[in-house]
Amino acid sequence: MTFDIFGLGNAIVDNTVFVSDDFLKETSLSKGSMKLVNAKEQVELIARCQGLALELKAGGSVANSIWSAMASGARVAFSGKVSTDEAGLFYKNEFTKHGIEFPVSLLESDIPTGTCLVLTSPDAERTMSTNLSAAIHLSADDLDLELIATSKYLFCEGYLWTQEPSRKACLSAFEQAKKAGVSIAFSYSDPFVVEQFRDDFRNISKEYCDLIFCNALEASSLAQRETALSSLEYIASILGQGQAFVTLGREGSLICDAGNIEKCPSKFNNSIKSIDSNGAGDAFAGGVLHALSQNSTCLEAACWGNFLGAELVQIHGARLDINKKDYKEAFKRI
Hints:
Elements: E1 3-8, E2 12-18, H1 21-25, E3 34-36, H2 39-48, E4 55-59, H3 61-72, E5 76-79, H4 86-96, E6 115-120, E7 126-131, H5 145-149, E8 151-157, H6 164-180, E9 183-187, H7 191-207, E10 211-215, H8 216-223, H9 228-239, E11 243-247, E12 253-257, E13 260-264, H10 280-293, H11 298-312, H12 327-332
Parallel strand pairs: 1-5, 1-8, 2-6, 3-7, 8-9, 9-10, 10-11
Antiparallel strand pairs: 2-4, 6-7, 11-12, 12-13
C-alpha cells in the first residue's frame, strides 16, 4: 500500500488541562512555550493538577498532523516510539483503529511512554511540559524504509533534533526519501528548538527539504529577522524552488512557492471562540499536506489548513473530533 504522508515524530500521550495564569506563575514554565523535563519534574507537575479536569489524549506534533490529514481523507502512516505499558497500548490503538499505519515495534522496557502536560490558560494559549521517556528510543532501526519510499510526502518534526537517536532516524529517513524522489516536509516545531539547532535547520532546509512549516516566532528565530515576511523571504532563499508556510494565528498564513510569496486570509470570524490553541499549527500542516497530495495549489492547501486550525482552537485538545464533523466531505467543497 502506498501512503500520501509518512510521519516521523515523538509519540507522546497528552495530559491536557485548563489552568489559570496564577497557576502558571507558580511553575517554572514560560507561558506559550514547550519545556523538556525529567520524570521526577513531570510527576510533580502532574500532581499539582490533581483536582483539575485532566484529559488523556494521544499526542505529538507530527502525530497530530497525521491525524488531521487522516480526518481530511489522506492515507497515512506514523512512526514514533511508545512502550508496552497501558499508555503505549492506548496510543497505538488510537491510531490503528482509525486506519493509521503504525509500523514501529513497542519498547519492551520499564521505561514508560512519553507524556506531555498541556496547560491551557484563559486566553487559549498552551504551555507544555514534556517528558520524552520511551520516545527518545526511536532510532533508524525503527524505520520502514519501503513505506517511506512509496509515500508522496515524508513529514518530520524539529523536536526529533533534541535527542541523538531520533535525530539520526530523521536524517536516515531524509536520505531514503531523497533517494526515492519522495517530497520532504519539515516542521521547525518550537522557537527553543530553533535556537538550539539553528545552523542544523538551515543546512537541512537547504539540503533536503521541499516544504517547511513554522510559525512567525520560529521563522524569525531561524532567519534572525524581525518580521514574518522578511523571515519567510530568508527561508525562501534557502529553499530555492521549495515551498514554505508560516502560520500567523488569527491573521491566517503566509505562503512561499518557488520564491513567490502571498498571504492566505484567516478562517477566523466573530462567531469563532478560541478556547485552546494547542495543536492548531499541527492541524494546519496536516491539512496542507493532504491538500497538496491531492494536487491542490499552495493557496488552496493553505486555505484548508487555515480552516482546520480554526476548527481545532474551538475544542480542547490537539485532535480534530471526527465524530462530530465529516472533514472528508468538507474538503471536497474547498
